[in-house]
Structures are given as C-alpha cells and as structure tokens.
Design goal:
By secondary structure, the chain is an alpha/beta fold. The protein has helices spanning 4-15, 53-65, 76-85, 102-111, 131-138, 150-171; strands at 18-19, 25-26, 45-49, 69-73, 90-94, 120-124, 142-145, 176-178, 184-186. The protein has a single domain (4-26, 35-186), classed as Response regulator (Rossmann fold). It starts with a helix and ends in a 12-residue tail after the last strand. Residues 172-181 have a biased composition (Polar residues).
Length: 198
C-alpha cells in the first residue's frame, strides 16, 4: 500500500491549478501557452494501470478531455489480462501496485510478440537514480514523474501515439486517395457497363 502522503500531495498539486477543457493545466493568473488547445489525442486507446482512485480519476479526466479512450486496470495482473484481450495504443503503467507491480506486468506483456511495439510509459514517484534504467530494462519505453505534470504527460504521450493515431484516422477515410495537393479524390471503378473509361 502506498504512503498516504503521496496521494495527498498529488491531490493538493492538482487543486493548485486550473484545468482547461483540453486537460492542459495553467496557473489561474497566467494565460495558456500558444497552441495548448491543439493538444489532441482523439481516439487514442490508453490503458491506465493505477491502483490509487484519486490518481485514476484525475488522469482519466485529463486524458478524456484530450479525446483519449481510457480504460483502467487496478494492478499489473489486470493490465496483463486487458492487453491480452484488447488493443491499446499506449499503456500508462504505475510501478508499485498490489497483486502485481509495473515491472513484472511489463515483462509479461512483452512476452507476446504482438505487444513488442506497444508503448508502455512508466508513472513513478521515484526520483532515485537508476529507476529510469530499471524501467527500460523491464521493457518500458518512457516514464513520467508523479505528481503528474500535464504538459510533460502529453509531451511524452505524443512521442509515442501521435503517428499511430494519425495513421488510424487516415485509414478510416475509406476508398479514397490523396492527390499531390492534399485534395481527396474518389477512386474510380475498373469498369462501368456500356461506358468507356479507359
């Protein structure tokens, strides 16, 4: 079980900031950064692996406001089961959890070859030297520190999912192709009875 002061500190930090509609946090007497409203991860399927309910609620709201589809796993075992049965674009993995921790869960997830390229980002309150190396040794791609800094969170997520989500959105267009100037052109059929289209 995690020390209660960690949860209280996280909750206090969150309450010190105002959250805009896209989940970016700004001080109440400051203006949002230019381009902050453009931070979108629409349709990104994110598995949030976290046992602390407060952290779950805050992270889910931040991610959902940016357009992500969030599913929660309360521990590493639930995460392993979820990844085995569903497709995700990214996993946010806490390190210390009951039942199964983040390191072990990541190693088990990586056993399945289909998950070798699944981005797994560690969420850690540990600032000790060597934690980053330990995360990478377990198979994690990156990490963010807790309490969560929203800008850093999105910056890290976009490093791993932006291209995947963009590709997914492009493929959903259907039977169309893009011309040299970026215009969408319809795909013609090979034959139309009674009409010469050669």
């Amino acid at each position: 079980m995690k020390p209660i002061n960690q949860s209280l500190l996280f909750d206090t930090i969150v309450n010190m900031f105002d959250m805009d509609k896209n989940g970016m946090t700004i001080q109440s007497d400051a203006k949002p950064d230019v381009g902050a409203e453009e931070v979108r991860i629409d349709g990104a399927r994110i598995l949030l692996v976290e046992d602390n309910e407060i952290n779950q609620e805050v992270a889910t709201e931040i991610l959902s406001n940016a357009g992500a589809i969030v599913e929660i796993a309360n521990n590493g075992k639930e995460a392993v089961d979820a990844v085995a049965s569903k497709e995700f674009d990214l996993v946010l993995m806490d390190l210390q959890m009951p039942v199964m921790g983040g390191y072990e869960a990541t190693k088990l997830i990586r056993i399945d070859r289909k998950n070798m390229n699944l981005p797994i980002i560690a969420m850690t309150a540990h600032a000790m030297q060597g934690v980053e190396a330990e995360c990478k040794a377990a198979g994690m791609n990156d990490y963010v520190s807790k309490p969560i800094d929203t800008k850093n969170l999105f910056s890290t997520i976009l490093k791993w999912v932006k291209q995947n989500v963009a590709s997914s959105n492009l493929t959903s267009v259907g039977s169309t192709k893009t011309g040299t100037e970026g215009t969408v052109e319809p795909t013609l059929p090979d034959r139309i009875p009674g009409v010469d289209i050669s």
